[in-house]
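note to self — DONT lose this again. spent like an hour looking for the file last time. sequence + predicted structure for the chain T wanted, 120 res
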Amino acid sequence: QEWLEKRFAKFGGETWSSRPLSIYEVHLASWSADAKNYRDIAQPLVQHLKELNFTAVEFLPVTQYPCDQSWGYQCAAGLYAVDRRLGTPDDFRFLVDTLHNNDIAVFMDFVGAHFAKDEW
């Protein structure tokens, strides 16, 4: 409950709707050659977003997928689990918390209509 109240105070109701919205779309696995996991991505992404005056970030699908070329748009299994190649759910939570603690909203893209038919 405390977590929800904290997020609502920062991003909910009038607070969020009265602020400018500028969204940066990012595919986490290919965003940085140096960052290999959610924790490595967190601070450099915050810095990048702040330098460019973005107020929010939209993650391309973060779920597990079979083919790197699909960028997460081919769901095969683990439709609700974050991609383990970038870390654990706690690592992903760290990334989102870091963004929220820096007043950056987080949106997540989900495409449940694309299911892989390949034989992987």
